[in-house]
Amino acid sequence: MAKQIQSIRGMHDILPDESGQWFWLESRARLILERYGYREIRTPIVEKTELFKRSIGEVTDIVEKEMYTFEDRNGDSLSLRPEGTASCVRAGIQHGLFHNQQQRLWYQGPMFRHERPQKGRYRQFQQIGVETFGFAGPEIEAELIALSKRLWDELGIDDVTLELNTLGTPESRRAYREVLVAFYEANRDQLDEDSLRRLDGNPLRILDSKNPQMQALNEGAPSLHDHLDDESKAHFEMLCRLLDDIGIDYRLNLRLVRGLDYYSHTVFEWTTTSLGAQGTVCAGGRYDGLVTQLGGRPTPAAGFAMGVERLLELIRVRQGEQGAYRPDAYLLLAGEAAQQAGFALAERLRGDLPALKLQVNIGGGSFKAQMKRADKSGADVALIVGDDELAAGHVTVKPLRDRDAAQQTVPYDSVRAILEARGETRDD
Ligand code: ATP
Ligand code: MG
């Protein structure tokens, strides 16, 4: 036998048993986004490497060591997208979506990061992301948070906590950055390798360190909140008030920072303790500086992205399978004549009953074998056509799940009424 080829480490197949659950989550997310007036944008999976260098920044884990970067046949440096925001901003500038306009956009698709694969952390993973442009006030951050909360409710997720922080205006942040650098300089001997590297390019990111030793040092670091100017405070207080108004709880987390220069004001994360180390299911904030950083005119912007694998895992942990695909009916064909005519009969049923999910037995088999397949398919009813039924123009309808319901043999034209009464043709 020839050697088998396996998928790439950290990149997974979504098998038919799981894809129903994906579809279930995605369709609920889409519905809620539409209810809030968001429109989908689809951008390419590959972009010029420079886009990510200029947006995410060179002194970040993603750009320094996680990107799938390659030269194409023209010698251009391209990268698989590690996230979706940069592409949205690039597309918005390129197509003039931002000038004197407000945009509420969303996207979904695979992202690629060369990280160490583990539960909840993959090299290809799926995000659903939301980006807004042209809204300067805190109402939009409140809307983003409200809509994510509504999604958790819809998905039956109740063990997530909202962590909230503000980075203030760029001026506030600059002032704070100086104080912070001075603090770390004074404690230079306690900094680990990563933090030393970040001290020059990205000192706020040190606050985010997962190293326990650094976390201890960070406990004593000066707080950004002592350096906020009035505008920063007003923006944040207004956001908190809006969240209070709609009864959304939050935890102020002063250590929550997004290290990048284009972030300002609000940052937030939805986290859970049910998933072990990979507990952040959704992260976002305001990034007013990014559009100009990528060559556009000044445009206020805010958004978030959620990790679909982590959300699905959370739902599985809590509630088991959701939305698995199953047909409504399975058509058994018993006898030679019925087997010949059955294929056309299935097409006729699909034409007459557009909402019916019908799986037809193909490949013959004994009646018993066909019943086994029908049962395994998960269908609610078996439709049985043997040679006798075929000659009479009849179909036998046999309920598979409720033992008490009797099977009935009826003329073809009555099948519809029976299935409709059983709710098999519901559009769901
Ligand atoms: P983390 O701290 O877990 O590495 P991050 O800050 O790198 O997350 P973001 O870039 O903010 O993550 O992406 C938003 C969301 O996408 C995360 O909250 C997470 O749910 C998901 N995510 C990020 N990286 C991965 C990955 N490698 N595998 C699976 N999901 C991921
Ligand atoms: Mg990461």
- Beta-strand share of residues: 15-25%
Taking all residues together, what is the mean pLDDT? 93
Distance between the terminal alpha carbons, to the nearest Å? 44 Å
Give the CATH H-level superfamily of the largest domain. Bira Bifunctional Protein, Domain 2
Strand order of the largest sheet: 1-5-6-11-10-9-7-8
Q: Per CATH, which architecture of the largest domain? A: 2-Layer Sandwich
Instruction: Note the main sheet.
Output: 8 strands, mixed
Describe the structure.
With 428 residues, the chain is of the alpha+beta class. The chain has two domains: 16-169 and 229-319, Bira Bifunctional Protein, Domain 2 (BirA Bifunctional Protein, domain 2), CATH 3.30.930.10; 329-425, Rossmann fold (3-Layer(aba) Sandwich). It contains 15 helices and 16 strands. Helix 1 (16-35) runs antiparallel to helix 5 (139-155) and helix 5 (139-155) runs parallel beside helix 9. The protein starts with 15 loop residues before the first helix and ends in a 7-residue tail after the last helix. The mean pLDDT is 93. The structure holds adenosine-5'-triphosphate and magnesium ion. The site of adenosine-5'-triphosphate has 18 residues, from strand 6, strand 10, strand 11 and helix 11.
